[in-house]
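Hi there,

I know you've been waiting on this one. I reran it after we fixed the sequence typo, so this is the corrected version. Both the input and the resulting structure follow.
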Amino acid sequence: MVFLQVFFRFVVKGSLPWSEELARYLMVWATFIGAGLAAADNAHIGVEFFVKLFGPKASKFFLTIAYLIVLFTSLALLNYSFIIIQYQFATGQLSPAMAIPMTIPYLALPVGFIYMAICFTIAYWRNMKSL
């Protein structure tokens, strides 16, 4: 999308008024979906000092605490994202350039947090089996 915008601006000498906005919304969606994918692959940043310092029982304990913190944080943020979505529905706000309902870009929040919570839960069970 950004490439098209640059092409149209410098080669065609006319810009696409909606391309920057679409690129921004796609980036938000990619970020939240990517967070869930990273959770599924254990690619999130983590402090493994305590996990490796102690034995297997303590490792399970620290991993459980870490996953519970992430799960509860995801669920809390999911709750707040529903508040934002409700506000967007109530106001009926449209995006400036594309004139789409702002609920579409903001839906990335609850979808991403649900996906992240599911992926972290699956990753937790996988890690517990491997320990």
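Quick highlight: The chain has six helices and no strands.

Best,
R. S.
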